Amino acid sequence: RKSTVVITGASSGVGLYAAKAFARRGWHVVMACRDLVKAEKAAQEVGIPKDSYTLMHIDLGSLDSVRQFVNNFRASGQSLDAVVGNAAIYMPLIKEPLRSPEGYELTMTTNHLGHFLLCKLLLEDLKKSPAADKRMVILGTVTHNPDELGGKIPPRPDLGELEGFVAGFKSPISMIDGKKFEPVKAYKDSKVCNVLTMRELHRRYHESTGITFTSLYPGCVAETPLFRNHYPLFQKLFPLFQKYITGGYVSQELAGERVAAVVIEPEYKQSGAYWSWGNRQKKEGKSFVQRVSPQARDDAKAERLWDLSEKLVGLA
Ligand code: NDP
To answer: Ligand 1 centroid vs 88 CA: distance in angstroms?
Structure first.
């Protein structure tokens, strides 16, 4: 039996190259994407062999769609060895919040709430799987962490006391802290939520299930389409800046390899860990477990975020 991994947002960037890396290592990849035509084209372009992947529709910006995906996955009869929560949107230039069908702000919904629901539901499938080594990985980012150079640029993430979630997170509310809409901060806040979710999954389920829960910062993958909603000049200069000034630049290929390694290799079987290769790429490229930001290591906040997220996605 081939091992099977579900990867969200496998139609471009890190997710696409991770899919390729998994296929090369003999895994079967369920590419969970919102645009299947684009995903199929992308898979062929990077040369993923046809028999190593299945395309399945998911729109993480819609909680109904996440539920439908899980139903479809279960109906397909495949067993599950690993999940990679990778999809994300970053909309730095929008002035007004976009909304999910439920009425929630879209960046937080796609990046955090959609993945929260997906991970919670697929946990059941992982539990049932006969595999000895099962892992659930959510992508983090350096910008979640003001302790590091890459995280110092304002606006900094700040979940406040989760006032926006407490108040139901619908219009006129658009931010988790209940404050004024700020799209860059919404992205960073959502990535803090990703790390808190991973740590809370670990705390609640690692011991009882044996599943390994981790997160990683693959490096600055400056050429992915994540920055497609930014100014064209930014898109041109950012990779150069990361290559020649900060040294944070990594190729999409290498980022994809890192994701696959964290899911497959024995050295990354350390539940609760956040893996990084550093801000500057060293020649030997060694990974290490990095301490996450003060907000992302706040256990009380992780627990509250969990409870409030369960309510918002309709699980509580
Ligand atoms: P991309 O924009 O290249 O890829 C994002 C993927 O998410 C695409 O496949 C996109 O689909 C998908 N996606 C977006 N919205 C939805 C949705 N509603 N439903 C389903 N899929 C969706 O970004 P990256 O590859 O750069 O980013 C991937 C992850 O890596 C993110 O979690 C990001 O935070 C993280 N990361 C990226 C870094 C970087 O420097 N690029 C650094 C650190 C972390 P579609 O193709 O249809 O648009």
So the answer is: 4
Query: What separation in angstroms does the CA of 267 have from each of 65, 111, 213?
Result: 35, 27, 13
Reply yes or no on whether 90 is catalytic.
no
- pLDDT tens-digit series, residues 173-217: 999 999 999 999 999 999 999 999 999 999 999 999 999 999 999
Which is catalytic among the residues 17, 53, 104, 187? 187
Q: Where are the alpha helices (DSSP H) in the chain?
A: 13-24, 36-45, 63-75, 106-108, 114-128, 163-166, 183-209, 232-240, 252-264, 299-312
Q: How far is the C-alpha of 103 from the C-alpha of 224, rounded, in Å?
A: 28
Closest residue (by CA) to atom 1 of ligand 1? 226
Q: What pTM, to 2 d.p., does this model score?
A: 0.97
Q: Residues lining ligand 1, CB < 6 A? A: 8-9, 11-15, 33-35, 38, 58-61, 86-89, 110, 139, 141, 191, 217-218, 220-222, 224-226
d(CA 314, CA 66): 12
The predicted pLDDT at position 127 comes to 97
- Closest-CA residue, ligand 1 atom 11, reads 9
- Rounded distance from Cα 111 to ligand 1 centre (Å): 9
Radius of gyration of the chain (CA): 18
Cβ proximity of 164 and 107 under 8 Å: no
At 236, the pLDDT band (50, 70, 90 cuts) reads: confident
- Alpha-carbon torsion (286, 153, 193, 68), positive or negative: negative
Q: Tokens 């529709």 correspond to what residue?
A: 57
Residue 14: pLDDT band (50, 70, 90) is very high
Chain center to CA of 122: 15
